[in-house]
Design a protein that fits this description.
This protein is an alpha+beta fold and 588 residues long. The protein has six domains: 87 residues, DNA Primase, Chain A, CATH 3.90.580.10; 134 residues, Alpha-Beta Complex (DNA primase DNAg catalytic core, N-terminal domain); 123 residues, Dna Topoisomerase Vi A Subunit, Chain: A, domain 2; 66 residues; 86 residues, no CATH class; 49 residues. Helix content is 53%, strand content 10%. It contains 26 helices and 14 strands.
Length: 588
């Protein structure tokens, strides 16, 4: 069963109250018209865990956990949404609908793919451990100082050089040609030719421990493609997946931190040294999707990339992504090229204490910029500012932004107010530069206007169609608003209106908690028409003003040219006039 109909969820909630379910795990007492108890998700001496029967949700003011009765069972029993619904349906005496043929086929395809990859991982690992043809693979890992314990932990394997072996093996297991063509293990040009041959095989697990893809390292140094990864399939999306997450997850949760490094051997080398909270993207740049997935489990991180120019650029981009999620971030700089080199140089103690080498990501940005430009000259100071400006724009906290501006001012010997003035001129994040007492409510900063609007829509779902005609997902900058918008869009497309299904579509705990906390406030359901109209107008004005600024810049550039393109200039002046009129109409 891949989706539970809203009617079934409503029936379960009608037949069994959330306090009735929670009280089986937590002793609840009535106080001030609400039910309170000690939170089951963290240790506390005074009750901060409250249950609202009328609204149908729980919330802990201590650890921030909250949700519907379904979320409570998912958290307390450590099970998925579908299993939580089944458990509560049985408790409430509600019959669940049977899967449709389409739902059964989709689930069957995914299950068959997972079984295929599990079988392949076990086969590759067995060949590596026991077959003579894998002897050079075992020697290679010994040279890289990767122990047998780590090999077994990550289930490292070997794909034989024989190009006909894999097809014969899988056909003998009764897999059809049609299924193997979409499996992601054979060439698109030749559906019988495996993409992994004579390679070390690194199974890629999801966070539940299912093998969903492979990474292969060539053992023939003459091979032009040193590393290959599985293509995207029904069970694998490269941009959303991280190598080592399954193995690292217990330590990431325990330590509330993670290390992002570049590749498979970096992760293995750190594990060899006892640093067991490292992950790596899959041969591509670190993505926002990967960062958001990690943010579910920890809010501090270290970035450990190669010391070459490409590695420095990767660290810069990753730091920017992490900062947008308001995580605490450090960048680790080492003399050796990567952790694997350190391990080979037998410097295990350095690897064990690698995180002590980290500096704040903003300090890293400034240092890198100062290496690139002569920061003693006016043009060099401006170049350093331009280099770190995107990072300043990404900072969510006013206090952190103020501190960062002060640090930059000291590093390049420029007055703080000058930097603030330049940021204001850029009109990127002007509200962060103003005094906090000048801002209230949805006007506090531009990105929260988007978030505020989405929270209003969460409480007034019938208005989403009107809003989406005027505001599209790509128009938004705030990642929190974008995730809520996406969940609303998916719910609309699937005909779902329940609060539970909407929450289930929001991946990040922090954003889910924002939605839950909004249910305790009346501000999202008062004067709805006026609020939505006001917020939508503000959003449109913000977009038009940005467009107006871009047009003005081009106009000024054309006016400075010796031979001005008058026709182009006239077109731009008309466009500016039109934008001004549109802004005027909205404001009126």
């Amino acid at each position: 069963m891949s989706r539970i109909p809203d009617a079934v969820l409503d029936e379960i909630k009608d037949k069994i109250s959330i306090s009735e379910v929670v009280s089986e795990y937590v002793k609840l007492n009535s106080k001030g018209g609400q039910l309170w108890g000690l939170c089951p998700f963290h240790e506390e001496k005074s009750p901060s865990f409250t249950v609202h029967d009328d609204k149908g949700f729980y919330h802990c003011f201590g650890c921030g956990k909250g949700g519907s009765v379904f979320n409570f069972i998912m958290d307390i029993e450590n099970i998925g949404f579908i299993d939580a619904v089944k458990l509560l349906a049985e408790k409430a005496g509600v019959a669940l609908e049977e899967e449709t043929p389409e739902m059964q086929e989709q689930r069957s395809d995914k299950q068959a793919m997972l079984e295929l990859y599990k079988r392949l991982a076990e086969s590759f690992h067995y060949i590596y451990m026991h077959k003579d043809e894998a002897s050079h693979a075992r020697e290679y890992l010994e040279q890289r100082k990767i122990s047998l314990e780590t090999v077994k932990r990550f289930k490292v394997g070997y794909a034989p050089a024989d190009s006909s072996w894999l097809y014969r093996f899988l056909r003998a297991k009764k897999y059809t040609d049609e299924f193997l063509e979409k499996s992601g293990v054979f060439s698109r040009n030749n559906p019988r030719y495996p993409i992994f041959r004579d390679r070390l095989m690194f199974p890629i697990f999801d966070q539940s421990g299912n093998v969903i893809a492979f990474g292969g390292r060539a053992l023939d140094e003459g091979n032009t493609a040193k590393y290959l990864n599985s293509p995207d399939t029904v069970i694998f999306h490269k941009r959303k997946t991280l190598f080592g997450l399954y193995q690292s997850l217990p330590e990431i949760k325990k330590s509330n931190t993670f290390i992002v490094c570049e590749g498979y051997f970096d992760v293995l080398s750190l594990f060899e040294a006892g640093v067991m909270h490292a992950v790596a993207p899959l041969g591509t740049a670190f993505t926002e999707d990967q960062a958001m997935k990690l943010f579910r489990y920890a809010n501090t991180c270290s970035l450990l990339f190669d010391s070459d120019r490409a590695g420095q650029e990767a660290a810069k981009k990753a730091a920017l992504i992490v900062e947008k999620l308001n995580m605490e971030c450090k960048v680790i700089q080492i003399q050796d090229k990567d952790p694997s080199d350190i391990l080979q140089n037998s410097n295990v103690s350095l690897l064990k204490n690698i995180e002590k080498e980290g500096i704040t990501s903003f300090t890293y940005m400034i240092n890198r910029a100062k290496e690139l430009y002569d920061y003693t000259s006016p043009n060099g100071k401006l170049a350093v500012f331009n280099e770190v400006q995107p990072f300043l724009e990404a900072i969510q906290s006013d206090i952190k932004l103020s501190s960062s501006i002060k640090t930059l001012a000291e590093e390049i010997d420029v007055d703080e107010q000058t930097i603030i003035s330049d940021l204001q001129k850029q009109r990127k994040r002007p509200s962060h530069i103003r005094e906090s007492h000048e801002r209230t409510g949805a006007q506090r900063y531009d990105s929260s206007l988007e978030l505020y609007l989405m929270l209003v829509i969460v409480h007034n779902r019938d208005r989403f169609l009107d809003v989406r005609r005027q505001i599209h997902l790509e128009d938004m900058q705030d990642h929190r608003a974008k995730e809520i918008y996406t969940a609303l869009e998916e719910s609309l497309r699937e005909g779902e209106t329940s609060f539970e299904n909407l929450l289930n579509k929001i991946e990040l705990d922090s954003i889910r908690n924002l939605v839950l906390q909004s249910y305790g406030s009346h501000e999202y359901v008062m004067h709805v028409d006026n609020v939505i109209r006001d917020l939508t107008c503000r959003f449109r004005i913000k977009q038009l003003e940005a467009k107006r600024k871009a047009v003005l810049q081009v106009i000024k550039s054309l006016e400075r040219e010796e031979h001005t393109d008058m026709q182009r200039l006239q077109e731009l002046l008309y466009e500016k006039k039109f934008i001004d009129e549109e802004i005027g109409k909205i404001r009126n």
